[in-house]
Design brief:
Elements (H helix, E strand, L loop, with lengths): L1 H31 L5 H7 L10 H7 L1 H10 L3 E2 L1 H5 L4 H34 L2 H6 L2 H30 L1 H22 L11 H6 L5 H27 L8 E2 L1
Antiparallel strand pairs: 1-2
Length: 244
């Protein structure tokens, strides 16, 4: 189990490092050419449409890597092991704990690369001036909640269609949500609360807005957990296996 965590973490670090280079190096070129200043550079790294910390990355590109990491680091629970538990609620609690840990590790690794690379290219006085570190911590917490919700949603979808088809369904839903949020812009959408860092850096939202965004994600998680419990309660435990 420890080997799977180490292997999965190492793969993610390499993947995130390569992705940062591919996503953010063009902005560095723009800075060197005098097109943007250092403040604009760090803000562009987290804008809504592109960049390493953008909605495109979080809400679409990282979906499949995250689910693969979630499944790779989870303990597979067979029918025999499930029958030894005190009840189905125990299984769901263990599964939720696994999702929470995987989401936290995934986000910590991603944001660690962002922090490391940002500190290399951006002077600390500028980062403190725009309160980047403070906003980054708030963003990280919100991001963990987002991926926890994603993990629970994936579990629900996989209960209906299986693990592999569940990934396809999840990606389809994420693509539709990304399109609605970025193209149609029809009111509030769940993806509106994902990229808090960018919105804080450009002073688009304030502390009450952040608290409201986190509250909405917590409520969404509560609804998903109720739905997962209802779906799992209706399954025949002798014909069903899950990751825990």
């Amino acid at each position: 189990m420890r080997y799977r965590w180490l292997k999965g973490g190492a793969i993610l670090i390499v993947f995130f490092a390569v992705d940062w280079i591919a996503s953010d190096i063009p902005y560095i070129s723009a800075y060197k050419n005098g097109m943007i200043n250092l403040k604009e550079l760090v803000i562009n790294w987290s804008n809504d449409s592109s960049g390493y910390q953008s909605l495109l990355e979080y809400g679409l590109i990282y979906m499949i890597p995250y689910i693969l990491f979630l499944n790779a680091t989870a303990r597979y629970s067979t029918v025999v092991s499930m029958l030894r538990r005190n009840g189905r609620r125990d299984l769901l609690k263990e599964d939720f704990k696994s999702i929470a840990i995987s989401a936290a590790v995934f986000c910590l690794l991603h944001e660690s690369i962002a922090c490391f690379m940002t500190c290399i290219f951006i002077p600390e006085d500028i980062l403190f001036e725009i309160r980047w570190f403070r906003f980054e911590m708030v963003h990280l917490f919100s991001l963990i909640l987002f991926y926890m919700n994603t993990g629970v949603l994936y579990r629900i979808l996989s209960m209906f269609s299986g693990a592999v088809k569940g990934i396809g369904l999840l990606f389809g839903l994420c693509a539709a949500e990304f399109y609605v949020t970025t193209v149609m812009s029809s009111g509030w959408q769940p993806y509106c609360d994902v990229v808090l860092l960018y919105r804080l850096l450009i002073n688009e939202i304030t502390c009450p807005d952040v608290l409201l965004a986190i509250f909405r994600q917590a409520v969404f998680m509560f609804i998903l957990l109720i739905a997962e419990d209802a779906v799992f309660s209706g399954k025949d435990i002798l014909e069903f296996e899950i990751f825990t």
